[in-house]
């Protein structure tokens, strides 16, 4: 193995926040300039799963764990075909990867997909700013001659826009199985949702996000799975319309994250943006039915506003133990349950994977 | 689920004396849990034989019993105090074993006492090898192929089916006592025989050897509702094969991907659920480095050393939460004290890296094998926190206080390449330094990994540090390079050494460039929530989070660093009480310490905690930010005292006795002057630098003489020389480490050794009591049995001691604590040592006299007078009790260590015997120390010529108790001449059956062997003592101890012990 110098000359990079804070570090990955929404993730492992989670489309993600890249890149662990964040912010990238499964270094991976990033900054200080002031936009640039007064208005004006259409699959795809037939709506689905169902014997048909309800219902699935995905749920107006029809169908539905928010919007409730969201693998959620607490994997910046729920339509099924925000809904008179967190884990704890079994049972009973 | 209202009075069992494998971590856990119970209005009854602990304070529990940890004592205590519940999971293996034994007897059921925290079924499932294995098989968790055997033949047969090497683990022992790896049948038989005997249940697990796999640990918590979480995972840098207590450990794991991390996390949660644990649990795994294959190595259903480390590494108070769970609370009902916003049902996320390095005692046991195995040898540990691994490693190294400050501190440059490769294969405490040298020689990562099995990632990190050394040596010290060197936590003086500058120049350059340490918070949540608890660590390159406080007067309390022989938990006791006393006086308190096992580093002891190395540079960085009004150094042992000079240079006021006066006590000439002024005699002596000067001095004084370096603790390097040859040898040993201070050569006086701790306010003194050592002078005070109140000296001598103490304290201008050791020969009193600081005996004497010396000394330091604090100055009236402090040793853990007692301290801990009569107190003290006689009533005596006459009386008394006495030729002859029916036995070099056969035959209860002078490793005595210790036989090397033991045995008809509640010994 070749040794690489510790202080080899690397290009300077800057992270500029819309509040005017500037962090100086070194450039990693692409040296392209980007503007994006800056968020932080507290997971200590699973950086590749985070990078390839389509829900990060339209965001630049800061990893609060300071040592990233230690075990390299193992492509089998990717949650989609490519990394999605606009930018990547770390304290330190390991100069060598070490793991028996590692096929590449994270440095190469970022370069290969043209993802710009910054290393060597005080990620904890950045996290504290985001925590105190809320998620904000920022720029990563290698241009040393930046002019703050020109950049800040640009940062303030920036909006993520419609991202679901960017990340969803282009064509329908089928994973053969002998069990229940599940239609998976891909709003930016992590691979492990389909894998979790397929492993349990389901035949999983993955549909592009803009597929009409009619097309899905025509296939007479035993159940419908609404996936996670990026962005503001209210940007998905046409999808919400289709979900309304799915709601009426009486087919069992299980929804995760963005899917959960979309179902709430489709049934008349409202969503709102959180100050800095939940991104990590340590959030306790309580199953309100039995009082049990599970540690969950999370990645969301919006939430369902429980004050707007019609108790005749849906009631809270899970809540966050820390901040009491809504983490799941049960729909009255329907075989529908939705969660804000990620039972498919990857990265993060697998404690709530039992929800897939619950979904399977629901489909069996309904049959 | 809220608290169970039926739980009102809880008996908490502590872990007893500090021994290797069971140390201060249980005082930390126990103290935290007791406070947590009291917070809930529970009445706490505490049992622990260790008087040096904080948990045995009357402030911590309502009823405090410092009594031997035996089944009989617990039974009697339950009958007396009638607790409704027993919490056994805080006292380590000792507490757990005790609870199990009582449960098996049906005692708890009979008296309606419930075990809380965990059930006996759970303990059995986790601890009994067979039940554990079948439980793991039931839930599909892999364990290494293994078989529990109860005899050697079965072990050999099973090993033949799975192949060598195999690991041997005795059931129910602590710190892996008696375990090991066997590579062939011969080793197997040897280790197995020993292990079978040490196991409480006579069982040893023979297991497929998974040495070389990654060793990973998970700390998990579960409540009665079945909710479970992981507090932390940890990766041992040393792969499986080295006890985790002796491994360098990093948290969180560094080389595991999310798939591996979650696989093991899920497994740990499955295990804790299946075992139905309510509380904390530690699960250890071996993970194949090149596949997903793993094995569960071990489960500890209790708090442990690892849980203490995990608590300090994350800020999650495992013991506190475990205590609440034991009362019935669920995780989501228990608030996280650090954030105040989250709950105990959330998993800590770290945004830093933690490194723990064990503190191994090879500086004390120079003849011991340094090799690290599955048998733990470390006496303590240090922890450090940094935002990068290299920095955390560098900080941990310099926290060890073993003359190491970088990866250049051990020199292997002399080794040839071949020798170096061979050295790499040696698993000992210097391995990371050997790896650094291998990297300097450009041995490839792969080759180093192949030999050491240490993950390449760690090897690369060591390489980063080596490359920095090289850059500092060869390149110009630019601001950029300096910044990077500081990011990697190179101390200024190491940078200075590499660049040819002075440390002051490096510091100046640093300040000029604004390269300053910043402090970050340990907040359990990677900054996701604002934290309320100021628990800090330093980094270079980042924003400073330490809150600037200026509203109250501020005091810096310097801790005592890692637990080592000579500087133990006693100093943590003193630091904590001093902190609390300052707090009561309205001060803002700041603790600096680096020991993860202790109470002082719990986040709610001081107002602020800095988890940092205790070196001048690290302390100065804190001083720069905090600007304290003063610092106290007299409570943190030698570690803190050594910082005095540096603190003065930083402009920090030393509170209490001034530095000059500390020096006066240590500087022979100044001290002699003071003694002369006060007309206090001391043994004649000289200061020397060379062996020649020493021999000249000894010639003038006449042998025997005491030889020792000045400025040491625990008598380190101190020896009694009886010849010029001894002097050459001892001076050689002392000078292996460069001495800044001269060596002392004193006339050796044989008399009664007496010790006092006193508080002085500048005018008056307060002596809580006079302690007398059972062993004659010449055995280190920390290794002597100490009796309060002194039994055999006259009132005149006591008055003289009081008078000398007053004179010395006043002449040295002591403000605060002073410790003085005297020798009394008839009515003559000589001073042998003065330490103007808190000592090892302070917790013991505080507890048995009921006088809270540390708070008193702290108040005196702040200007209060003894008189106004409600005490009559002088020697206090004697208590109604006799209290005996008994040293406890861990010799069986350290292969090759010489166990004979002398001026250098060797004990790791202590226990107390307290009673109305001397005999009962002595009996309790021996019982507490685990001297459990008789079993076979066979003993061996082999004493040096000078001792032979004294030995006769002892032998006669043992014989009267029914002991059969074996003795070697000359001892047997003397005994027979005096009418003792001794059986003459062959020496070990003679034909069988000889002494060794007797010892290995396991029919011997006791060996009394007084070694002749000098270092005599190769001699018979050494081999006899080692073998006796390693086969679990009690060995005494002083006739004074033997006399005490026989006295105690003559009084064992005390079938009921009287239990004494220490909390009721009111201050007078």
State the main characteristics.
heterodimer, A: alpha/beta, Glucose Oxidase, domain 1, Rossmann fold, 2 domains, 10-stranded mixed β-sheet, 7-stranded mixed beta barrel, 23% helix, globular, disordered N terminus, B: 1068 residues, alpha/beta, Dna Ligase, domain 1, Carbamoyl Phosphate Synthetase, Chain A, domain 4, 9-stranded mixed β-sheet, 7-stranded antiparallel β-sheet, 36 helices, 19% strand
Describe the structure.
Chain A: Keywords: Amino-acid biosynthesis, Arginine biosynthesis, ATP-binding, Glutamine amidotransferase, Ligase, Nucleotide-binding, Pyrimidine biosynthesis. Chain A: It catalyses: hydrogencarbonate + L-glutamine + 2 ATP + H2O = carbamoyl phosphate + L-glutamate + 2 ADP + phosphate + 2 H(+); L-glutamine + H2O = L-glutamate + NH4(+). Chain A: One of its GO terms (biological process) is L-arginine biosynthetic process. The complex is a heterodimer of chains A (367) and B (1068). With 367 residues, chain A is α/β, with parallel strands linked by helices. Chain A has two domains: 12-157, Glucose Oxidase, domain 1 (3-Layer(bba) Sandwich), CATH 3.50.30.20; 164-366, Class I glutamine amidotransferase (GATase) domain (Rossmann fold), CATH 3.40.50.880. Helix content of chain A is 23%, strand content 31%. In chain A, a hairpin with a 5-residue loop joins strand 17 and strand 18. Chain A is globular, with a radius of gyration of 21 Å. Chain A starts with 11 loop residues before the first strand and ends with a helix. Chain B has seven domains: 9-124, Rossmann fold (3-Layer(aba) Sandwich); 145-209, Dna Ligase, domain 1; 355-515, Carbamoyl Phosphate Synthetase, Chain A, domain 4, CATH 1.10.1030; 550-648, Rossmann fold; 656-682 and 750-775 and 789-878, 2-Layer Sandwich (D-amino Acid Aminotransferase, Chain A, domain 1); 684-748, Dna Ligase, domain 1; 933-1037, Methylglyoxal synthase-like domain (Rossmann fold, 3-Layer(aba) Sandwich), CATH 3.40.50. Chain B has 36 helices and 40 strands. At the A-B interface, helix 3, strand 15 and strand 16 of A face helix 9, helix 16 and helix 17 of B.
